[in-house]
Design a protein that fits this description.
Number of strands: 18
Distance between the termini: 27 Å
Structural class: alpha/beta
Oligomer: single chain
Radius of gyration: 21 Å
Strand content: 25-35%
Bound molecules: NADPH dihydro-nicotinamide-adenine-dinucleotide phosphate
Number of helices: 6
Shape: elongated
Length: 311
């Protein structure tokens, strides 16, 4: 199928988390013909979350998937078209109109918005997937408040793990950092803050092998990397902070930084004219639903202006 046979949209949004869906709401309300390539698992990280207490407008909290369904419904109401497919590697550097073949169908866009997010790295151990959202978390900012006066574990030895532990210590009775090595990777200043905090202890050379609990996390199994001694630690929460992977692999030619996050130029544009970016795929710092939504709004306004200037 070639570009001339493809249905033409003003904007093709790739990704359907808060960034993509917020952009879709703004763009469709501006009467721009908008397609969202939502992915086979649409909705992003919030689909893996249970209660969200810090998204403004929901004083009683809202379940992550319910929030995403509401955002999608709002985008559909204004005319956004959804394709629940994954895109194959696509060269978007050839310029406008950008043609993408997805699910056997060719579509074309005058502009592209990349909003594919970043996935938290997982341990891949028994109990992790089953208890995600039920004591297993990848975001202390999101979930620490659920662990007031509880003992929690943090997995990892980088700056993220230190930051998560320090934040959690404001709520929890105790935080145990489990680190697989014997020399933390985190910056010296973060290590010092952790070591000074009476509520945080570090277990070195420790691998977590299983997370156990009926309804929620009750305990974890660990093994000492050198002695191979195994033990169990009763905890109510496990915060996994072993890094994130921005989802950029399918966009060869788009400039990324040394950590793989898309480099934005002048707010939400990229190195390719007509290709914009929003959300966690370019933001390693905040990684919140509300900030992703904010970036989605910014990108939509930039795209509107870009298209208006070219009419
Ligand atoms: P990092 O890659 O720096 O650290 C990941 C940590 O997780 C490492 O200690 C690593 O162990 C451990 N790890 C990785 N995979 C596994 C696994 N399968 N099982 C157990 N442990 C594992 O990621 P971060 O997210 O911490 O940081 C990313 C970047 O962001 C860094 O440059 C960091 O400096 C920066 N950052 C800065 C902050 C700040 O300054 N306030 C806050 C947060 C992040 P090992 O050490 O053995 O490889």
């Amino acid at each position: 199928m070639n570009a001339s046979m493809a249905e033409l949209f003003d904007v093709i949004i790739i990704g359907s988390g808060p960034a993509g869906l917020t952009a879709a709401i703004y763009l469709t309300r501006a009467c721009l013909k908008t397609l969202i390539i939502a992915g086979s698992k649409w909705g992003g990280q919030l689909q893996l979350t249970t209660e969200v207490e810090n998204f403004p407008g929901f004083p009683d909290g809202i379940q992550g998937p319910a929030l995403m369904h509401a955002m999608r419904k709002q985008a559909e109401k204004f005319g956004a078209v959804f394709l629940d497919d994954d895109i194959p590697p696509t060269d978007v550097t050839r310029g406008t109109p950008f043609t993408i073949t997805v699910g056997g169908k060719a579509v074309a866009g005058k502009t592209i918005l990349i909003a594919t997010g970043a996935d938290a790295k997982t341990l891949g151990i028994p109990g992790e997937k089953e208890l995600t959202g039920h004591g297993v978390s990848y975001c202390a900012t999101c979930d620490a408040a659920f662990f007031k006066n509880k003992h929690v574990a943090v997995v990892g030895g980088g700056d993220s793990a230190m930051e998560e532990a320090i934040f959690l210590a404001n709520f929890s009775s105790h935080v145990t950092i489990l680190y697989r090595g014997d020399t933390l990777r985190a910056s010296q200043i973060m290590q010092e803050r952790v070591k000074k905090n009476q509520k945080i202890s570090i277990q070195y050379n420790t691998d977590i092998t299983e997370i156990i609990g009926e309804q929620t996390v009750e305990k974890i199994k660990v093994i000492h990397a050198k002695t191979h001694e195994t033990s169990e630690i009763p905890v109510s929460g496990v915060f996994i902070a072993i890094g994130h992977t921005p989802n950029t692999k399918v966009f060869p030619g788009i400039d990324v930084n040394e950590r793989g996050y898309i480099l934005e130029k002048n707010s939400t544009s990229t190195n390719v004219e007509g290709v914009f970016v929003a959300g966690d795929v370019q933001d390693a710092r905040y990684r919140q639903a509300i900030t992703a939504a904010g970036f989605g709004c910014m990108a939509a306004l930039d795209i509107e202006r870009y298209l208006a200037e070219r009419q």
